[in-house]
Amino acid sequence: MRETALLLIVVINILRADNSRDCQALTFGHGSVVCECNATYCDSIGRVGLPDLGQFLSFVSSKAGGRLLKSQGQLQKNSSGTALRIILNPNQKYQRIKGFGGAMTDAAAMDILSLSPGTQDQLLKQYFSPDGIEYSFVRVPMASCDFSTRLYTYADTPGDYELVNFRLSEEDIHMKIPLLQRAQSLSARPLSLFASAWSAPAWLKTNGALTGKGSLKGKPGGKEHKTWAQYYIRFLEEYGKYNLSFWGLTSGNEPTAGQMTNYSFQALGFTAETQRDWIALDLGPALHSSAFASIRLMILDDQRLLLPHWAKVVLSDVHAARYVHGIGVHWYFDRIAPPDITLATTHHLYPEYFLFATEACSGWNPVDRGVRLGSWDRAEDYAHDIIQDLNNYVTGWTDWNLALDLGGGPNWVKNFVDSPIIVDQSKDVFYKQPTFYSMAHFSKFLWEGSQRVGVSISQSTVLELSAYIRHDGSAVLIILNRSEEDMQFEVWDQTLGFLASTAPSHSIITLLWNRQ
Q1: What is the rounded CA–CA span in Å between residue 465 and residue 391?
Q2: What is the pLDDT of residues 96-138, one digit of tens each?
Q3: From the UniProt record, which GO molecular function terms apply (predicted)?
């Protein structure tokens, strides 16, 4: 009887320690499943502790329907004889990770708030809590973007060069800010917020409109450019009144968009040269002389195919470069922009400036537009791009909208796309897409400060992988298998032994083991 009671206590403690929950899977005909969540139930990876020395943990998500399925194994002293060997080289050290996250757009905030309070909390927990996937970054648009329901800035009074009438919007005060505060309360560590502006007020622009081809009136150093720089300071000050501080800023979303004729939504055009001069003469000095001198300023915030040219123009100028900390990149044309000649080349030219992926989403391409519930292809696209970026010195990766509705909006210009979480207001539920789990395989395990390390492979393979050592000495290996075949492999950690495993067809795996 006593033994039975002790066994029961052990089982209860195990259950308490493992907060994971199973996916409530639904199929919508797009290749795999989504996981449905409501106010009272959602699958969860739970809190992940380190396995004992000599043990490893494996987390697998797959097209077949598995979502972060957890198993445990034993490292062996001898090789399993598997032909494919992955050798960990911890002495080869590369960049350190900053983190992962998504964007709190107007649309995302509206969709989250369309749910009942309990379901809202469940959704935010999935992203930000220790039981969720622990996002550490949130991108915040400054005023409206296409994922808004109207066009506005914070200073729409013509001629207000002193920004006397600068005001945050209702979308900020009643939607984004409360949700950001709730997300912060759920997170085990301070969230890193970074802001991006889509357009200056129309009266500051050459075309007199928030949309289309237009840039700032005048020249860098002039009153329009200085007012636009002060607009950034005022934004940071106003958010600070709500106890929200920012880790970083970008110099403006997709500056090349504002150089395009008849561009359909909010944009502000800069060339690399005019961005350089605006930073050197206006934005940089304004930040430096403000209470926000330590904020990280990222240039570009546009497609990586613009590198290394854009970085050369801006960072070769000492007056601009002194105010810059990093380079933001978007993913939309990555298939025609090889990472070695864009990202890696830029890193080697300017190693003191970090690279950071600031925006990505599926469903943006006109031939495959909008939401695809359960698309595993899109999950693989995410994992492939993240691994490719990280293996070429990028320090973090930011998804676009944290949530969208079933139509991929709202979006005032009907630029509907996909999101890792899709909200169905009519049922008071949300669906966690396969892309949510792609993000999880990185965001949950690659803590801030994790350092990418070398790996070598015994033979050619279709597997894509990236390896890291965390600050507690543990190792993380992330593997993507986009092939139709299950792939057996072993990992050789030369200090501990061999870890044998299998990458199922169309799967993402995260392996975690203690090294000390």
Answers
A1: 9
A2: 999 999 999 999 999 999 999 999 999 999 999 999 999 999 9
A3: galactosylceramidase activity; glucosylceramidase activity; glucosyltransferase activity; signaling receptor binding; steryl-beta-glucosidase activity
Mean pLDDT of 139-161: 98
Specify the pairing of strand 507-513 against strand 55-62: antiparallel
pLDDT digits (tens, 9 = 90+) for 325-368: 999 999 999 999 999 999 999 999 999 999 999 999 999 999 99
Beta bridge partners of 501: 489
Q: Is residue 85 in some structural domain?
A: no
How long is the chain? 516
pTM assigned to the model: 0.95
Measured distance CA(419)–CA(141) in Å, rounded = 17
User: Total domain count for the chain?
Assistant: 1
Residues involved in catalysis: 254, 359
Residue 13 CA to residue 19 CA, distance in Å, equals 11
Position 92 in a domain: no
What is the Cα–Cα distance from 427 to 413, expressed in whole angstroms? 26
Distance CA 223, CA 225 (A): 5
Q: What does the pLDDT average to over 60-64? A: 98
319 inside domain: yes
Question: Could you tell me which residues are beta bridge partners of residue 476?
Answer: 468, 512
Domain that holds residue 184: 98-443
Q: What is the CATH number of the domain that holds 223?
A: 3.20.20.80
